Amino acid sequence: MIQILYENGHEERCRNLASVTANASVGAASGPALDKKIQKITTLCFWGHGTSGKFCSMVPANFIAKVKEWKKWNPSITTVEIITCNSRHGGVAVSTKKPPPESEMPWVHSYTDRIKPELRKLGITLKALPIGLGSRGIENRWSILKWSPSTKTWLYVTAGGGNDTDGMWEGVFDVEQHDVFKRTKSFVNAGNAVKASNGLRKYTLNFGSVSQLRSSLVTLAR
């Protein structure tokens, strides 16, 4: 069984996800853990707002406590999935007006980096969206996950730079302002159109239908 847990503002999309996920149940991430031993939960799938410091309104320590609470009542849980913006990306600790070259920027650990060790101790596999690589093979530093409720499609943009305006928002603009998106509201159609017309990009694009979202997650820790 897959237990999907939403942050406020994400319930409808989580129910959309559950509708295309076999044997799935939906609940609030802020709610109590439930004893579902009979259903044998194997996966907790969280979807909410994310930064390098918080996810679903929880700092890493609180998130681990939440997972432990679910694991206590449901020892069959072996996987945790995170669906959000920026969970793979740390903050850039730059205090100068002119940041150093991207490869030399000081780094603040990402949310997933902070929770991986504790999840590993619990024997839990962690999955999240890709970190994305720049043209020189450097890991990107920003990401955003967009949702189109009318078409139930999603767009995930990653980019490098000292600020999220250096490439990430350019990617969002290119897709959302494309005539195809304005006409169809489909991130799949518009994403394909942008990829076809714009070969040299400062950002990476991933997109799909709601049924393709969980399969786009990558394994970070076992």
List keywords for this structure.
single chain, 222 residues, alpha/beta, 3-stranded antiparallel β-sheet, 6 helices, 9 strands, 22% strand
Topology:
Blueprint (H helix, E strand, L loop, with lengths): L1 E5 L4 H9 L4 E5 L14 E5 L12 H14 L5 E5 L27 H11 L3 E4 L13 E7 L4 E7 L8 H9 L2 H6 L2 H11 L5 E7 L8 E4 L1
Parallel strand pairs: 1-2, 1-3, 3-4, 4-5
Antiparallel strand pairs: 5-9, 6-7, 7-8
Helix pairs in contact: 2-3
Short description:
The protein is an alpha/beta fold and 222 residues long. It is built from six helices and nine strands, in the order E-H-E-E-H-E-H-E-E-E-H-H-H-E-E.
Describe the 3D structure.
With 222 residues, this protein is an alpha/beta fold. It has one domain (2-221). It has helices at 11-19, 60-73, 111-121, 168-176, 179-184, 187-197; strands at residues 2-6, 24-28, 43-47, 79-83, 125-128, 142-148, 153-159, 203-209, 218-221. It has a 6-stranded mixed sheet with strand order 2-1-3-4-5-9. A 3-stranded antiparallel sheet has the order 6-7-8, with helices on one face. Helix 2 (60-73) links the parallel strand 3 (43-47) and strand 4 (79-83). Helix 2 packs parallel to helix 3.
